[in-house]
């Protein structure tokens, strides 16, 4: 059993009661998010993928999120924009663009999970990535990567040779 604690903040915890598995995962996600806020996203690729796997990897249904960064690739925020079923979710590029504009983002990292654990990008994943990339490019914003995650592993489209606008 993991030592009991209740997270009061990312820097402070008290030994009050046994924490649930969900609380521990949420606490880990908070710590990983704070690490992203301290430095450049591209300088911490391992932290980025660990954070995104923690946030989406173990979900029972498909989730689609976006990590937003500024022109120096400093972390601006992360949001889960779409929730779907076990087999998929409907993602609207205009909503990704709307949030990127609201946060004054210069670039994004797209991420979604595959609850099945099969991480091979589908033709729909590739088409969606292209559509979001094209929409953001019209506004001088970039897609840096699209990750597909599970609780234990991940696939990067850029690492597989995918080229985004302005690459």
Automatic annotation (TrEMBL):
Start and end residues of each MPN domain: 41-163
Designated name of the protein: JAB domain-containing protein
CDD domains membership: MPN_DUF2466 (cd08071)
Entries under InterPro entries matching the protein: MPN, RadC_JAB, UPF0758, UPF0758_CS
KW Cytoplasm (keyword) present: no
Keywords: Hydrolase, Metal-binding, Metalloprotease, Protease, Zinc
UniProt superkingdom: Bacteria
